Amino acid sequence: EEGWALRLKWTDEALEEHFQDPAVHLLVAYREGRPVGMAELELEGREASVAYIGVVPEARGRGIGRTLLSEAARLARTKGADLLRVRAHDHETGALELYRNLGFSLEEAVATYAKELRASR
């Protein structure tokens, strides 16, 4: 599965092709006329996944993420999905709490390992 950060290397054509796929839906939240959050919903058969969800820091804590996720779930249901998945890292405590509060349950935990590469002095 390709991570969101890898999309930064996609060409404009690749991005356009991806977002024109009828299985991909982009939801954008606006506040006072400017975008403050987005969620990308991807459908595959009877399953859907939120490939990305994010809210700009200054707009967090206002229910925007909750609204985006609820709207993604509603859209997934109307498109025939029976299951919605969303991913988060264990340090994203706000996201994890939101997902639990909205009725999501842990399906799989992935460990991330790190190694400090700074030279010792």
TrEMBL record:
Highest taxon above the source species: Bacteria
Q: Which organism is it from?
A: Thermus islandicus
Pfam families named among the record's database cross-references:
Acetyltransf_1
The molecule here is called GNAT family N-acetyltransferase
Q: Which UniProt keywords apply?
A: Acyltransferase, Transferase
> What region holds the N-acetyltransferase domain?
1-121
Q: Which GO terms describe its molecular function?
A: acyltransferase activity, transferring groups other than amino-acyl groups
